[in-house]
Design a protein that fits this description.
This protein has 174 residues and is α+β, with helices and mostly antiparallel strands. The longest helix has 26 residues.
């Protein structure tokens, strides 16, 4: 229980840090208005339990909120359209400004998944009993011998060597 509170606290601190950094970046800009740069989401061929990715980007945005949930991400994933209302609100919060957009999700396609039954008529099964053949003949003998590995002994002989050198003093070296 304590770890859940601590995890929530760390997420809030990380979110606040991101918002403060974005705030400081926008603080020194001349134009602080929120501008739509990109908003992509699929509206065609939607089913009731469709998977939708909303990809967005706004200039001078501090954070975004979807149905009263704050985020600093630039895309969200909705795994089931039944979990959200047909008109979803996105609010972009900026430097003492905010803009509201409404995204519409209307499922237009439907899967008919009624259960069905199959009936077989005039079905006859002819089962034959097959004899399993014997795999070895009584006159064939099978024997297994022990496996062994023979290795020869390897030896390494050490050879001595001498280095001949002349002794010199420091004056000779220079």
């Amino acid at each position: 229980m304590f770890s859940q509170h601590l995890k929530y606290l760390f997420k809030q601190i990380a979110f606040t840090k991101i918002v403060l950094v974005r705030f400081l970046i926008i603080l020194f800009k001349r134009n602080k208005d929120i501008e739509l740069l990109k908003l992509n989401y699929e509206t065609n061929y939607l089913f009731k339990n469709s998977f939708v990715i909303i990809d967005y980007e706004f200039k001078n945005a501090l954070w975004y909120s979807f149905n009263n949930k704050k985020t600093s991400e630039k895309s969200i994933k909705i795994f089931n359209l039944e979990n959200i209302p047909p008109n979803m609100n996105i609010v972009i919060h900026g430097f003492f400004r905010k803009k509201k957009y409404v995204l519409k999700f209307e499922p237009s396609l439907k899967i008919e998944n009624q259960s069905f039954k199959t009936n077989f008529s005039n079905l006859s099964l002819n089962l034959k009993e097959n004899v399993i053949p014997q795999l070895t003949h009584s006159l064939i003998g099978i024997s297994i011998s022990k496996l062994g590995i023979k290795t020869s002994k390897v030896t390494i002989e050490n050879q001595t060597f001498n280095i001949k050198h002349n002794n010199y003093n420091q004056n000779e070296f220079i």
